[in-house]
Amino acid sequence: MNILSIETSADETAVSVVQVTGEFPTASYELLGNALRSQAELHQGYGGIFPTIAKREHARALLPLLEQSLKEAHLVEPEPHKLPAEVIETLNTLLYREPDAAALLIPFLEQYNRPEIDMIAVTSGPGLEPALWVGVNFAKALATVWNIPVVPVNHIEGHVLASVFDVEEDNQLAKINFPALALLISGGHTELLLMQNWKQYEKIGETKDDAVGEAFDKVARLLGLPYPGGVEIDKLAERARKEKLPPLEKPLPRPMLTSGDLHFSFSGLKTAVRYAVQDQELSETAKAAWAREFQDAVTEVLLAKAKAAVDQFNIQTLIIGGGVSASRHLRQSFHAAFLESHPDLAVYFPTPGLSTDNSIMIALAGHAKIDGKLAPQAAVDLIKADGNKSLG
Ligand code: KG4
Ligand code: ZN
Questions:
Q1: HSE on the CB side for 9, CA within 13 Å?
Q2: pLDDT of 164-179, one tens digit each?
Q3: Which of 75, 251, 315, 329 could form a Cys-Cys staple with 181, CB 3.0–4.6 A?
Protein backbone atom coordinates (compact mmCIF):
# COMPACT_ATOMS: atom_id res chain seq x y z
CA MET A 1 0.00 0.00 0.00
CA ASN A 2 1.29 3.46 -0.84
CA ILE A 3 0.41 6.30 1.51
CA LEU A 4 0.73 9.92 0.50
CA SER A 5 1.10 12.04 3.63
CA ILE A 6 0.73 15.77 4.08
CA GLU A 7 1.78 18.02 6.97
CA THR A 8 0.96 21.75 7.27
CA SER A 9 0.20 22.33 10.96
CA ALA A 10 2.86 24.93 11.69
CA ASP A 11 5.71 26.36 9.61
CA GLU A 12 6.87 23.25 7.78
CA THR A 13 5.16 22.09 4.62
CA ALA A 14 5.89 18.43 3.95
CA VAL A 15 4.74 15.69 1.59
CA SER A 16 5.89 12.05 1.60
CA VAL A 17 5.16 8.82 -0.18
CA VAL A 18 5.56 5.80 2.06
CA GLN A 19 5.18 2.21 0.93
CA VAL A 20 3.76 0.04 3.68
CA THR A 21 4.15 -3.72 3.88
CA GLY A 22 2.32 -5.51 6.68
CA GLU A 23 0.07 -4.37 9.46
CA PHE A 24 0.44 -1.90 12.26
CA PRO A 25 2.49 -2.09 14.50
CA THR A 26 4.74 -4.66 12.80
CA ALA A 27 4.67 -3.23 9.27
CA SER A 28 7.70 -1.93 7.48
CA TYR A 29 7.59 1.52 5.98
CA GLU A 30 9.74 2.26 2.98
CA LEU A 31 10.24 5.91 2.22
CA LEU A 32 9.75 6.31 -1.52
CA GLY A 33 9.59 10.08 -1.66
CA ASN A 34 10.02 12.86 0.84
CA ALA A 35 9.94 16.62 0.39
CA LEU A 36 9.91 19.34 3.02
CA ARG A 37 10.11 23.12 2.97
CA SER A 38 10.55 25.21 6.08
CA GLN A 39 9.14 28.72 6.31
CA ALA A 40 11.13 29.48 9.47
CA GLU A 41 13.12 32.27 7.81
CA LEU A 42 9.96 34.12 6.83
CA HIS A 43 8.77 34.17 10.44
CA GLN A 44 12.09 35.26 11.91
CA GLY A 45 11.14 38.85 12.44
CA TYR A 46 8.00 37.87 14.37
CA GLY A 47 9.57 35.62 17.01
CA GLY A 48 6.93 33.02 16.20
CA ILE A 49 4.70 31.82 13.40
CA PHE A 50 2.75 34.54 11.64
CA PRO A 51 -0.54 32.86 10.61
CA THR A 52 -1.32 34.57 7.30
CA ILE A 53 2.22 34.05 6.04
CA ALA A 54 2.10 30.41 7.10
CA LYS A 55 -1.17 29.83 5.24
CA ARG A 56 0.03 31.52 2.08
CA GLU A 57 3.33 29.67 2.03
CA HIS A 58 1.70 26.26 2.57
CA ALA A 59 -0.62 26.95 -0.38
CA ARG A 60 2.37 27.79 -2.56
CA ALA A 61 4.61 24.96 -1.41
CA LEU A 62 2.25 21.99 -1.46
CA LEU A 63 2.20 21.35 -5.19
CA PRO A 64 5.98 21.63 -5.78
CA LEU A 65 6.55 19.32 -2.81
CA LEU A 66 3.91 16.86 -4.03
CA GLU A 67 5.56 16.81 -7.44
CA GLN A 68 9.01 16.34 -5.94
CA SER A 69 7.86 13.53 -3.70
CA LEU A 70 5.95 11.67 -6.42
CA LYS A 71 8.85 11.99 -8.85
CA GLU A 72 11.30 10.74 -6.27
CA ALA A 73 8.98 7.77 -5.78
CA HIS A 74 8.84 7.22 -9.58
CA LEU A 75 5.07 7.28 -9.44
CA VAL A 76 4.36 9.92 -12.05
CA GLU A 77 5.06 10.11 -15.75
CA PRO A 78 3.95 12.70 -18.29
CA GLU A 79 0.51 11.86 -19.64
CA PRO A 80 -1.15 15.02 -20.91
CA HIS A 81 -4.92 14.92 -20.69
CA LYS A 82 -7.85 17.22 -19.99
CA LEU A 83 -9.73 16.99 -16.72
CA PRO A 84 -13.52 16.93 -17.14
CA ALA A 85 -15.13 20.30 -16.45
CA GLU A 86 -17.01 18.96 -13.42
CA VAL A 87 -13.75 17.74 -11.84
CA ILE A 88 -12.21 21.17 -12.30
CA GLU A 89 -15.26 22.70 -10.72
CA THR A 90 -15.03 20.35 -7.73
CA LEU A 91 -11.35 21.18 -7.30
CA ASN A 92 -12.00 24.89 -7.43
CA THR A 93 -14.78 24.49 -4.88
CA LEU A 94 -12.65 22.44 -2.50
CA LEU A 95 -9.76 24.87 -2.86
CA TYR A 96 -11.67 28.13 -3.08
CA ARG A 97 -9.84 29.50 -0.06
CA GLU A 98 -6.51 28.40 -1.52
CA PRO A 99 -6.58 29.75 -5.08
CA ASP A 100 -2.76 29.60 -5.19
CA ALA A 101 -2.90 25.86 -4.61
CA ALA A 102 -5.70 25.28 -7.13
CA ALA A 103 -3.90 27.26 -9.83
CA LEU A 104 -0.86 24.99 -9.50
CA LEU A 105 -2.69 21.72 -8.95
CA ILE A 106 -4.95 21.63 -12.00
CA PRO A 107 -2.18 21.95 -14.62
CA PHE A 108 -0.17 19.34 -12.70
CA LEU A 109 -3.03 16.85 -12.73
CA GLU A 110 -3.54 17.44 -16.46
CA GLN A 111 0.13 16.86 -17.18
CA TYR A 112 0.71 13.56 -15.37
CA ASN A 113 -0.83 10.13 -14.94
CA ARG A 114 -2.77 9.15 -11.83
CA PRO A 115 -0.10 7.88 -9.41
CA GLU A 116 -0.47 4.60 -7.54
CA ILE A 117 -1.45 6.01 -4.21
CA ASP A 118 -3.91 4.07 -2.04
CA MET A 119 -4.72 6.59 0.63
CA ILE A 120 -3.85 10.08 1.81
CA ALA A 121 -2.95 10.81 5.43
CA VAL A 122 -3.18 14.47 6.40
CA THR A 123 -2.61 16.33 9.66
CA SER A 124 -5.97 17.67 10.76
CA GLY A 125 -4.80 18.96 14.17
CA PRO A 126 -3.65 20.15 16.56
CA GLY A 127 -1.91 23.18 15.14
CA LEU A 128 -2.52 26.52 13.58
CA GLU A 129 -6.00 26.20 12.15
CA PRO A 130 -5.62 28.33 8.99
CA ALA A 131 -2.43 26.39 8.20
CA LEU A 132 -4.09 23.02 8.86
CA TRP A 133 -6.96 23.85 6.51
CA VAL A 134 -4.60 24.30 3.57
CA GLY A 135 -3.29 20.76 3.93
CA VAL A 136 -6.71 19.29 4.63
CA ASN A 137 -8.31 20.94 1.60
CA PHE A 138 -5.42 19.95 -0.63
CA ALA A 139 -5.75 16.34 0.56
CA LYS A 140 -9.49 16.40 -0.09
CA ALA A 141 -8.94 17.73 -3.60
CA LEU A 142 -6.42 15.01 -4.45
CA ALA A 143 -8.57 12.30 -2.89
CA THR A 144 -11.56 13.41 -4.92
CA VAL A 145 -9.70 13.37 -8.22
CA TRP A 146 -7.95 10.08 -7.52
CA ASN A 147 -10.98 8.53 -5.81
CA ILE A 148 -9.12 7.33 -2.72
CA PRO A 149 -9.70 7.74 1.04
CA VAL A 150 -8.33 10.58 3.16
CA VAL A 151 -7.38 9.74 6.73
CA PRO A 152 -7.18 12.71 9.12
CA VAL A 153 -4.27 12.33 11.51
CA ASN A 154 -3.37 13.71 14.92
CA HIS A 155 -0.04 15.54 14.69
CA ILE A 156 0.97 14.55 18.22
CA GLU A 157 0.45 10.87 17.53
CA GLY A 158 2.72 11.41 14.54
CA HIS A 159 5.47 12.74 16.81
CA VAL A 160 5.07 9.80 19.20
CA LEU A 161 5.36 7.23 16.40
CA ALA A 162 8.28 9.09 14.78
CA SER A 163 10.23 8.71 18.02
CA VAL A 164 10.09 4.92 17.86
CA PHE A 165 10.50 4.65 14.10
CA ASP A 166 13.80 3.18 13.04
CA VAL A 167 14.45 4.87 9.75
CA GLU A 168 18.11 3.83 9.68
CA GLU A 169 17.90 0.07 10.23
CA ASP A 170 14.70 -1.84 9.51
CA ASN A 171 12.12 0.84 8.67
CA GLN A 172 9.88 -0.49 11.44
CA LEU A 173 8.47 0.72 14.69
CA ALA A 174 10.39 -0.50 17.72
CA LYS A 175 8.89 -3.44 19.59
CA ILE A 176 8.17 -1.63 22.80
CA ASN A 177 6.93 -2.82 26.18
CA PHE A 178 3.93 -1.21 27.84
CA PRO A 179 3.00 0.75 29.82
CA ALA A 180 4.90 3.40 27.94
CA LEU A 181 5.17 7.10 28.66
CA ALA A 182 5.35 9.69 25.89
CA LEU A 183 6.80 13.09 26.73
CA LEU A 184 5.75 15.35 23.92
CA ILE A 185 7.64 18.63 23.77
CA SER A 186 7.10 20.92 20.79
CA GLY A 187 6.38 24.48 19.83
CA GLY A 188 2.71 24.06 20.63
CA HIS A 189 2.59 21.26 23.21
CA THR A 190 4.05 19.94 26.41
CA GLU A 191 2.32 16.76 27.48
CA LEU A 192 2.89 13.53 29.33
CA LEU A 193 0.87 10.72 27.77
CA LEU A 194 0.41 7.34 29.37
CA MET A 195 0.16 4.51 26.83
CA GLN A 196 -1.15 1.14 27.98
CA ASN A 197 -0.89 -0.02 24.39
CA TRP A 198 -0.35 1.32 20.89
CA LYS A 199 -2.85 4.02 19.99
CA GLN A 200 -4.07 4.37 23.58
CA TYR A 201 -3.22 7.69 25.10
CA GLU A 202 -4.15 9.14 28.46
CA LYS A 203 -2.97 12.64 29.20
CA ILE A 204 -1.47 12.63 32.71
CA GLY A 205 0.38 15.93 32.60
CA GLU A 206 0.48 19.11 30.55
CA THR A 207 1.59 22.72 30.60
CA LYS A 208 -0.62 25.29 32.24
CA ASP A 209 0.65 28.05 29.98
CA ASP A 210 3.49 28.15 27.41
CA ALA A 211 4.74 25.04 25.64
CA VAL A 212 8.45 24.27 26.07
CA GLY A 213 9.28 25.10 22.46
CA GLU A 214 7.34 28.34 22.76
CA ALA A 215 9.39 29.22 25.85
CA PHE A 216 12.60 28.47 23.93
CA ASP A 217 11.45 30.72 21.10
CA LYS A 218 10.41 33.58 23.40
CA VAL A 219 13.56 33.47 25.50
CA ALA A 220 15.64 33.32 22.33
CA ARG A 221 13.92 36.46 21.17
CA LEU A 222 14.69 38.20 24.47
CA LEU A 223 18.33 37.28 23.96
CA GLY A 224 18.25 38.72 20.45
CA LEU A 225 18.40 35.32 18.73
CA PRO A 226 16.38 34.47 15.60
CA TYR A 227 13.30 32.20 15.41
CA PRO A 228 13.13 29.24 15.85
CA GLY A 229 15.00 29.75 19.08
CA GLY A 230 15.56 26.20 20.22
CA VAL A 231 18.43 25.47 17.88
CA GLU A 232 20.15 28.79 18.66
CA ILE A 233 19.85 28.30 22.40
CA ASP A 234 21.20 24.77 22.01
CA LYS A 235 24.30 26.08 20.21
CA LEU A 236 24.96 28.91 22.65
CA ALA A 237 24.38 26.75 25.70
CA GLU A 238 26.84 24.21 24.38
CA ARG A 239 29.39 26.95 24.01
CA ALA A 240 28.83 28.02 27.61
CA ARG A 241 29.39 24.44 28.77
CA LYS A 242 32.50 23.97 26.66
CA GLU A 243 34.03 27.21 27.87
CA LYS A 244 32.91 26.46 31.43
CA LEU A 245 31.42 29.93 31.81
CA PRO A 246 30.62 30.78 35.43
CA PRO A 247 26.97 30.28 36.48
CA LEU A 248 24.60 33.24 36.63
CA GLU A 249 24.63 35.16 39.88
CA LYS A 250 20.91 34.66 40.27
CA PRO A 251 19.78 31.33 38.80
CA LEU A 252 16.40 30.92 37.11
CA PRO A 253 13.57 29.19 38.96
CA ARG A 254 12.72 25.52 38.27
CA PRO A 255 8.97 26.03 37.82
CA MET A 256 6.62 23.41 39.29
CA LEU A 257 9.54 21.18 40.25
CA THR A 258 7.98 20.42 43.62
CA SER A 259 4.31 20.83 42.69
CA GLY A 260 3.66 17.16 43.45
CA ASP A 261 1.76 16.63 40.20
CA LEU A 262 2.79 15.99 36.60
CA HIS A 263 1.96 19.42 35.22
CA PHE A 264 4.27 22.11 33.88
CA SER A 265 4.47 25.88 33.61
CA PHE A 266 7.05 27.71 31.54
CA SER A 267 5.78 31.26 31.18
CA GLY A 268 7.46 32.33 34.45
CA LEU A 269 10.86 31.47 33.04
CA LYS A 270 10.34 33.78 30.12
CA THR A 271 9.22 36.55 32.50
CA ALA A 272 12.23 36.00 34.75
CA VAL A 273 14.57 36.28 31.76
CA ARG A 274 12.74 39.37 30.55
CA TYR A 275 13.14 41.20 33.87
CA ALA A 276 16.76 40.22 34.18
CA VAL A 277 17.89 41.21 30.68
CA GLN A 278 15.63 44.11 29.76
CA ASP A 279 17.37 47.39 28.90
CA GLN A 280 20.70 45.61 28.88
CA GLU A 281 23.25 45.22 26.16
CA LEU A 282 24.14 41.54 26.47
CA SER A 283 27.58 40.34 25.46
CA GLU A 284 27.86 37.07 23.53
CA THR A 285 29.23 35.49 26.68
CA ALA A 286 26.31 36.71 28.76
CA LYS A 287 23.87 35.37 26.15
CA ALA A 288 25.58 32.00 26.26
CA ALA A 289 25.34 31.88 30.06
CA TRP A 290 21.63 32.72 29.89
CA ALA A 291 21.02 30.11 27.21
CA ARG A 292 22.69 27.45 29.33
CA GLU A 293 20.80 28.43 32.46
CA PHE A 294 17.47 28.45 30.66
CA GLN A 295 18.16 25.09 29.05
CA ASP A 296 19.23 23.65 32.40
CA ALA A 297 16.07 24.90 34.11
CA VAL A 298 13.79 23.41 31.45
CA THR A 299 15.68 20.12 31.23
CA GLU A 300 15.70 19.63 35.00
CA VAL A 301 11.95 20.12 35.26
CA LEU A 302 11.16 17.86 32.31
CA LEU A 303 13.44 15.17 33.67
CA ALA A 304 12.00 15.33 37.18
CA LYS A 305 8.41 15.06 35.96
CA ALA A 306 9.26 12.24 33.57
CA LYS A 307 10.95 10.36 36.41
CA ALA A 308 7.98 10.86 38.70
CA ALA A 309 5.60 9.54 36.04
CA VAL A 310 7.87 6.56 35.27
CA ASP A 311 7.79 5.55 38.94
CA GLN A 312 4.12 6.26 39.47
CA PHE A 313 2.94 4.17 36.49
CA ASN A 314 5.61 1.48 36.42
CA ILE A 315 6.68 2.62 32.96
CA GLN A 316 8.71 0.22 30.80
CA THR A 317 9.36 2.50 27.84
CA LEU A 318 9.92 6.25 27.68
CA ILE A 319 9.29 7.98 24.35
CA ILE A 320 10.38 11.59 23.93
CA GLY A 321 9.11 13.42 20.87
CA GLY A 322 8.40 16.82 19.30
CA GLY A 323 10.72 19.55 18.09
CA VAL A 324 12.41 20.22 21.42
CA SER A 325 13.56 16.59 21.54
CA ALA A 326 16.19 17.69 19.01
CA SER A 327 18.04 19.37 21.88
CA ARG A 328 21.36 17.61 22.31
CA HIS A 329 21.64 18.63 25.93
CA LEU A 330 18.20 17.26 26.69
CA ARG A 331 19.03 13.96 25.00
CA GLN A 332 22.29 13.56 26.85
CA SER A 333 20.74 14.51 30.18
CA PHE A 334 17.84 12.06 29.80
CA HIS A 335 20.02 9.19 28.67
CA ALA A 336 22.54 9.74 31.46
CA ALA A 337 19.98 10.27 34.21
CA PHE A 338 17.78 7.28 33.36
CA LEU A 339 20.73 5.00 32.77
CA GLU A 340 21.69 5.69 36.36
CA SER A 341 18.27 5.72 38.04
CA HIS A 342 16.29 3.30 35.80
CA PRO A 343 18.77 1.12 33.87
CA ASP A 344 16.01 -1.22 32.64
CA LEU A 345 13.90 1.52 31.14
CA ALA A 346 13.98 1.73 27.33
CA VAL A 347 14.39 5.37 26.28
CA TYR A 348 13.58 6.49 22.72
CA PHE A 349 14.31 9.75 20.94
CA PRO A 350 13.52 10.35 17.25
CA THR A 351 16.37 10.25 14.76
CA PRO A 352 17.37 13.91 14.44
CA GLY A 353 15.64 14.43 11.08
CA LEU A 354 12.34 13.26 12.55
CA SER A 355 12.35 15.44 15.68
CA THR A 356 10.81 18.48 14.13
CA ASP A 357 7.70 18.49 11.95
CA ASN A 358 7.75 16.18 8.95
CA SER A 359 5.29 14.15 6.89
CA ILE A 360 6.87 10.72 7.45
CA MET A 361 5.35 10.70 10.92
CA ILE A 362 1.98 11.57 9.40
CA ALA A 363 2.14 8.48 7.17
CA LEU A 364 2.90 6.37 10.25
CA ALA A 365 -0.04 7.82 12.17
CA GLY A 366 -2.31 7.43 9.15
CA HIS A 367 -1.41 3.77 8.89
CA ALA A 368 -1.93 3.30 12.62
CA LYS A 369 -5.40 4.68 12.23
CA ILE A 370 -6.77 2.41 9.51
CA ASP A 371 -6.24 -0.85 11.43
CA GLY A 372 -5.19 -2.77 8.35
CA LYS A 373 -8.43 -2.00 6.58
CA LEU A 374 -8.46 0.56 3.85
CA ALA A 375 -11.89 2.11 4.27
CA PRO A 376 -13.67 3.24 1.11
CA GLN A 377 -13.50 6.92 0.39
CA ALA A 378 -15.63 8.62 3.01
CA ALA A 379 -17.46 11.86 2.36
CA VAL A 380 -14.63 14.36 2.35
CA ASP A 381 -16.97 17.05 3.66
CA LEU A 382 -16.79 15.41 7.06
CA ILE A 383 -13.06 15.95 7.39
CA LYS A 384 -12.24 19.13 9.23
CA ALA A 385 -9.16 20.85 10.57
CA ASP A 386 -9.19 21.23 14.34
CA GLY A 387 -6.51 23.43 15.86
CA ASN A 388 -7.20 22.08 19.35
CA LYS A 389 -7.54 18.41 18.50
CA SER A 390 -6.28 16.42 21.48
CA LEU A 391 -4.86 12.99 22.07
CA GLY A 392 -6.01 11.21 25.22
O1 KG4 B 1 7.46 19.76 16.69
P2 KG4 B 1 7.85 21.07 16.10
O3 KG4 B 1 8.71 21.05 14.86
O4 KG4 B 1 6.59 21.92 15.76
C5 KG4 B 1 5.44 21.90 16.56
O6 KG4 B 1 4.66 20.92 16.44
O7 KG4 B 1 5.34 22.83 17.37
O8 KG4 B 1 8.58 21.90 17.27
C9 KG4 B 1 9.10 23.17 17.03
C10 KG4 B 1 9.77 23.68 18.29
C11 KG4 B 1 10.22 25.13 18.19
O12 KG4 B 1 9.70 25.82 19.30
C13 KG4 B 1 11.73 25.04 18.24
O14 KG4 B 1 12.33 26.16 18.87
C15 KG4 B 1 11.95 23.78 19.03
O16 KG4 B 1 10.94 22.91 18.58
N17 KG4 B 1 13.27 23.20 18.78
C18 KG4 B 1 14.21 23.04 19.74
C19 KG4 B 1 15.37 22.51 19.09
N20 KG4 B 1 15.06 22.36 17.77
C21 KG4 B 1 13.78 22.78 17.60
N22 KG4 B 1 14.19 23.32 21.04
C23 KG4 B 1 15.30 23.05 21.77
N24 KG4 B 1 16.44 22.58 21.23
C25 KG4 B 1 16.52 22.28 19.92
N26 KG4 B 1 17.65 21.80 19.39
ZN1 ZN C 1 5.17 19.19 15.80
A1: 32
A2: 999 888 999 999 999 9
A3: 315
